[in-house]
Amino acid sequence: MPEREIITGLDIGTSKVCAIIGEVGESGQVNIIGVGTSPSHGLKKGMVVNLDKTVQAINAATRAAERMAGTRVSSVFVGVAGGHIVSFNSSGVVAVADSEEITHRDVMRVIEAAKVVAIPTDRQIIHALPMEFIVDSCRGIKNPEGMAGKRLEVEVHIVTGRVTALQNIVKCVQRAGLEVRDLILQPLASCTSVLTPDEQECGTVLIDIGGGTTDLAVFYEGSVLHTAVLPVGGDHFTHDLAYGLRIPFAEGERLKLLYSSQGDTGNELPVDKLQSILYPRGEEVFQLVEKELAKLDQSGIAPIQCVLTGGASQLRGLTDIAEEVLGLPVRIGTPRAVGGLIDIINSPAYATGIGLVQYAAKQGLAGEETSVEGPGLLEQIIERITRWFKDFIPTE
Questions:
Q1: Residues 6+ away with beta carbon under 8 Å from 93
Q2: Among 264, 164, 257, 173, which Cα is nearest to 211's?
Q3: Is the domain of 307 the same as that of 243?
Q4: Which one, 40, 41, 213, 236, has the greatest CB density within 10 A?
Q5: For residue 166, which phi and psi values (nearest 5 degrees)?
Q6: Could you list the residue range(s) of the whole structural domain that residue 269 is in?
Q7: Is the pLDDT of residue 275 over 80?
Q8: How many domains does the chain have?
Q9: Single pTM value for the model
Q10: Sorting pLDDT into bands at 50, 70 and 90, what band is 366?
């Protein structure tokens, strides 16, 4: 039977785990064929605090996506975020090996040179993202391969994470029986799925508001200039409602979702009461974003627009608060340039998961080769029995 290339993205968030299975066509178009979600109770502010609960959520989300796609996955591209993420800019320079032409090897060498920086031993580099190349003092080059030159420089944006936090994410995925193909910064994935090419060129700040964190990325001329992960998210809005109204957290979450979807809460509570509680937290989120954007002043680059995404971005009135605090036009970003299960995935809540699949496909990272028939019947039966025993039979 013919083979198809499958890429699976795993968005392990504070409030939910989302598995997205995508099929990559010959033209590079990504079609989503499987979606699975599960409540997450094993993370706090993007970092694992309970291995077992995180593994259970990964298993549940992955199985749901597999059932929908009619196939099995064995490896995933995992999104990472959390307060342990730290990023900065660096540069590197090398002499061109062949003075007549810059090769792919030269490009890799200069990026590796830029990664030779002093970082604490408890941190590791997740990404080294080229912002621009410089060939013999000529700046603004995006791809120098094939050009003539003797000196090659690069400016890169380096993203690092705490080693133990990343190891705990990898352990959870492996305990769920999956291989981690790569770790990808969540805001980078979200940018891939929701920003248009024009938005990536003209200066756009993307704000991905998740359950426990708010992820930030600034794009200019097609490159990432700045990233940050802020320790506040949608769960903080819920906690504010629970505390302010003296109600359980679950009831606060219900009211928040009801207000977000309908703009009111029926006869339960006055809208003004909810707004008086939610507005200050919204102001805080965007004031933190404003402080991060102030770090760009030295570069002389100022974003001209803002895109909100993530599950908590759907909170009614949040775009108005963002425009008021940041002084920028704001829109809600949903996944774009993707096919397949459009009716299901057309929501900011799926931006990161879909972006993981799109980013992997765009970078040419090989996916799994899977028969169109999916796993054999015997394999499916054995796997289901094994998983049933793991889930329901005590192992003490």
A1: 110, 113, 151, 152, 153, 154
A2: 257
A3: yes
A4: 213
A5: -70, -40
A6: 197-332
A7: yes
A8: 3
A9: 0.85
A10: low
